[in-house]
Design brief:
Largest sheet: 9 strands, mixed
CATH superfamily of the largest domain: Response regulator
CATH topology of the largest domain: Rossmann fold
Number of helices: 14
CATH architecture of the largest domain: 3-Layer(aba) Sandwich
Strand content: 15-25%
Structural class: alpha/beta
Helix content: 40-55%
Distance between the termini: 107 Å
Low-confidence stretches: 1-37, 437-460
Oligomer: single chain
Length: about 450
């Protein structure tokens, strides 16, 4: 073979090798692209709740329900052929810690979604974190409303799905005079403003109003004032551990023959069991969208799966069920989006619906809140609730109550935050008693705060 022939031969070999390399690269690229769509590395999510502090009694169960839902997804093959991995962070019942941990989960852990927060103070603190990063928080707890964020999906009740129907029911069945008692942060303050608007519009009376720091155990003065005021009922927005001494003291002060009925907005079956409340809270009421005692096939399956995982004696409550459903709705949105990118998943979340343990839950595309069935339950000595009233069908969420304009509600919330130095819970540690008269002149927009000009309050 001559030199010219040899050069031609080796040139053809080189071209052939080059073509094979290009074809191999195209095959690898195609496999990689397909792998990114239907397989590949794990999808990482963040769970952000309180494992410590006064809110841990409520939030630990929400962590468990969230983990159960994620485990079930992996047992079913994951999402898009990918395993889901989770990182749990402790918000420590402190809004500043929640914000810091949210940023860490997104920036350092690379999570694609946050499942978390209980108190509105923690959610308010996390909101700018997810908005600045164009991320996604799925929030499972009922709240005061007066908020919408494109970066949050709200799976708990808006005011018209819990607070407002419960007050209407109370005025019809319990009486027209109410004492308002709550923890001293954004949810109870705004919730009680909503209640005041509603009660006064319906010709009722607010007999008194008191706020306790989260975790407060000395409730004797609060209970004494409630008993002295003789309201027809108490509307309770206390969160966490303080409910234990509150109901115990109320039971002792009122006496077995003359109890003051109480409707709670943040006490469910887990709190009854873990705080030792079944006897002292028996006969009182709670307003939720879900109760463990619901006789529905989807609820029976949920209870069975949860207890098989965590033990037969565990109790389940509304935020736990909402958290469990939130994972399922998110997983469907990821599958339909074809990836876990928060912006695309948020868009798909707006079209999701689920036959949940509580009933049909659908995400409202206008507000990113869920349609919910409203229920009021009466506590039994065994720690369960008998449903005494239900809306019977899912109610469309209205985040901003119709008593005021959206601008007025937003201004009220912003003013409260400013009065607390940019926080969403009262930095003071005193118990506050707000003037009881319905015609409190000078109280700004019906909202009393420790530093609000014109608000008349006694502080211990």
């Amino acid at each position: 073979m001559g030199d010219a022939t040899m050069k031609w031969f080796w040139a053809r070999i080189a071209v052939g090798v080059g073509l094979l390399a290009v074809l191999g690269g195209l095959v690898w690229w195609g496999w990689s692209a397909a792998s990114a769509r239907v397989g590949g590395g794990p999808i990482v999510v963040g769970i952000l709740h309180s494992r410590t502090g006064p809110m841990a009694v409520s939030e630990r169960g929400v962590i468990d329900a969230t983990v159960l839902a994620l485990e079930e997804i992996n047992q079913g093959g994951g999402i898009l052929g990918r395993e889901v991995r989770w990182v749990i962070a402790d918000g420590a019942s402190d809004e500043t810690t929640f914000a810091r941990e949210a940023a860490r989960l997104i920036d350092d852990e690379g999570v694609s979604v946050l499942f978390g927060c209980w108190t509105s103070a923690s959610r308010k603190a996390v909101r700018p974190v997810v908005e600045q990063r164009d991320h996604l928080l799925i929030y499972p707890v009922q709240y005061e409303g007066c908020e919408e964020s494109p970066n949050i999906v709200y799976l708990g009740a808006a005011p018209n799905q819990q607070i407002i129907p419960a007050v209407a029911w109370a005025m019809e069945h319990l009486g027209r005079s109410f004492y308002l008692v709550g923890s001293d942060y954004i949810f109870p303050r705004v919730a009680n403003t909503i209640i005041r608007d509603q009660v006064e519009a319906l010709g009722g009376e607010i007999a008194g109003e008191a706020y306790l720091p989260l975790g407060e155990s000395d409730v004797s003065e609060v209970v004494a004032r409630i008993v002295a005021a003789k309201p027809a009922a108490i509307l309770n927005t206390i969160n966490g551990e303080t409910n234990a001494p509150f109901f115990e003291a109320l039971s002792q002060a009122a006496g077995p023959g003359d109890p003051i009925p109480t409707i709670s907005f943040s006490v469910g079956e887990p709190e009854l069991r873990q705080l030792g409340l079944p006897k002292s809270m028996a006969g009182h009421y709670a307003a939720w969208n879900y109760f463990e005692s619901l006789d529905r096939p989807s609820n029976r399956a949920f209870l069975s799966a949860f207890r098989a995982r965590y033990g037969p004696d565990r109790s389940l409550g509304d935020p736990m069920e909402a958290a469990y459903c939130g994972v399922a709705l998110w997983a469907r949105a990821v599958a339909e989006a074809g990836n876990e990118h928060p912006r695309e998943v948020r868009r798909e979340m707006q079209r999701q619906s689920l036959d949940a343990p509580e009933g049909i839950v659908s995400i409202d595309p206008e507000t990113q809140h869920a349609w919910k069935v409203v229920r009021i339950g009466r506590a039994r000595p065994d720690g369960q609730f008998d449903v005494v009233w239900t809306s019977g069908r899912p109610i469309r969420p209205i985040p901003f109550p119709l008593f005021r304009s959206q601008a007025e509600w937003e201004r009220l919330v912003d003013d409260l935050g400013r009065s607390w130095g940019g926080r969403w819970s009262n930095p003071g540690r005193s118990i506050e008693f707000v003037r009881a008269e319905a015609d409190r002149e000078g109280a700004d927009a019906g909202l009393a705060t420790p530093s609000a000009e014109g608000a008349e309050a006694d502080q211990l």
